[in-house]
Amino acid sequence: MHRLPPEVKVVAAFLGVVCVVAVPREAFAVFGGYFLLLVAVWALARIPLGWIARRSLIELPFVVLAVLLPFAEGGARVEWLGLSLSAEGLLAGWNILIKGTLGVLTSLTLAATTPLRDMLLGMQRLHAPAILTTIATLMLRYIDVIAGEARRMRLARISRGHDPRFLWQAGATARGVGALFLRSYERGERVHLAMLSRGWTGAMPQLSDARTAPRDWIYGLTFVAAALLLTVTGFVMT
Amino acid sequence: MTGAPPASVVVRELAFAYPDGHQALFGVNLRIEPGERVALLGPNGSGKTTLVLHLNGILTAGHGGVEIAGMAVDRSNVKEIRRRVGVVFQDPDDQLFMPTVRDDIAFGPANFGVRGAELAGRVDDALAAVDMAEFGDRSPLHLSGGQRRRVAVATVLACQPEVLVLDEPSSNLDPVARRELADVLLRLKGTMLMVTHDLPYALQLCQRGVVLDDGVVVADQPIRELLADADLLQRHRLELPFGFSPI
Fold first, then answer.
1. How far is CA B3 from the centre of its chain?
2. Which residues does residue B216 pair with via DSSP β-bridges, in sequence order?
3. Strand B163-167 with B23-32, pairing
């Protein structure tokens, strides 16, 4: 799974999410099927459950709305533990919650098996717009450089007695952010100059021309086929 | 055509003013033969960087011209010119922008159309030339300053340039890294132009020194002779480190 070409994984993950989104929300059992499919992938790729579980917490802020829906929606009510909930709202909330969760889990599976730079390579091979892959490549490289610069500027500030605990001291921090922006902008110009000097013409050159083996595509799309089968089952059930 | 190869670099009466009106070069003449190692010296603001940016066609001459190995630099051939002139910039963080060292070294030759096994070979050769063979899959972020500087040199060597141009190669290096870089540079065969304030380094690596001040060449002579001329150095804000004698 880790060695599968990145473009196969990107396509498989995307199609997998499309399958999940397409399923009617009442096909409850089918969602369990997707979950089992993901668990099978994790087992194959030896991704620890804890790794996935910790990172899936990122979803929480986004599902708040889903939790509110059963209370806020109108229509037929159901009684549950003394609470009066909207049936329509329950279904809508469930829809967001389950599809969102499965989407996050799929993305995490992709992230767990694909280093960022491979992901970029995959996007490039899939002919994603060159400007996007270039920006992402540069961001990947320079985020740490800029963070280092910010760290040094902060050190220099607090060494001169700056203690940004009080509101009226926030000004210095704000100016620091401005200075950082200017520095990054100037660095951007220097990087561009250095790239031009090595023959840059506006598009990342393909650094490896390895073709994706059909076998890899078939392997990757097997999982998509399983997901598609579940989707069809969902439509038949409802 | 006789057997003698054309000069690596010929700069003729080069003058240039920036769009804001600041005139940086006033008629520079310079000729560098194949295999020569030349130090380009001069105080800050003397036009050194402007001259370097003319050599690979980033800036185009206001007046006069530049020839690289017999080819005049103009808009139509900048790509070939940039292959022939490899510029190593001062801050390796500006030069190294790819996620891994290998990718970064492959970037230049790939832009010039090298692919597949030849590209991989170029990368391996360039890594070996700067003693960084085992660091290919690292991120530039996780290298020391000296290693980054050597990788920056490799990114340019992989393009197999006619002329290697180095901008302040020894800045921000500790003494060992500085010496390691010198070892690497001394092994290289081609033509080299080194912009520097580090006069002992110029003496160690170059045979000839050119002093640029206020946009004109004010001295062009064997480096040892140049550094021994205390008056000349003083006139152009150059200074040997305390206790250093070039003789």
1. 27
2. B213
3. unpaired
Select the residue of B85, B110, B159 nearest A207 (Cβ to Cβ). Answer: B110
Q: What is the total residue count of chain B?
A: 247
Q: Is the pLDDT of residue B147 over 60?
A: yes
Nearest CA in chain A to B87: A197
Out of A141, A190, A205, closest to residue B111 by CB: A205
Chain A residue numbers touching B100 (CB-CB < 8 A): 117
pTM recorded for the entire structure: 0.80
Tell whether A203 lies on the interface with B, counting CB pairs under 8 A: no
- Closest by CA to B141, choosing from A113, A140, A134, A121, is A140
In angstroms, the separation between the Cα of residue B116 and the nearest Cα of chain A is 6
Domain ranges of chain A: 6-123+209-237, 128-197
- Residues shown for chain A: 238
- Cα B185 from Cα B198, distance rounded (Å): 15
- Could you tell me which residue, A42 or A163, shows the higher pLDDT? A42
Q: How far apart are CA A152 and CA B20, in angstroms?
A: 33
- Which residues of chain A make contact with B56, given a CB cutoff of 8 A? 197
B216 burial class (0-12, 13-18, 19+ CB within 10 angstroms)? middle
Q: Which of A142, A144, A205 sits opposite B107 (nearest CB)?
A: A205
Distance (Å, rounded) from C-alpha B21 to C-alpha B39?
28
Prediction ipTM score? 0.84
In contact, B152 and B88? CB cutoff 8 Å: yes
Instruction: Give SS3 for B152.
Output: helix
- Cβ contact (<8 Å) for B97 and A200? no
Beta-carbon count within 10 A of B2 CB: 4
A90-119 residues touching B, CB cutoff 8 A: 116-117
pLDDT in tens, B73-132: 988 899 999 999 999 999 999 999 888 899 999 999 999 989 889 999 999 999 999 999
Partners of residue B67 on adjacent β-strands: B10, B72
Backbone φ and ψ for B68, nearest 5 degrees, come out as -115, 120
Q: How big is chain A by its Cα radius of gyration, in Å?
A: 24
Return d(Cα B1, Cα B85) in angstroms, integer: 23
For each of the domains in chain B, give its residue range(s) and CATH number, in order of start.
9-235 (3.40.50.300)
Which residue type does A204 have? Answer: M
Contact: A190, B89; criterion CB under 8 Å: yes
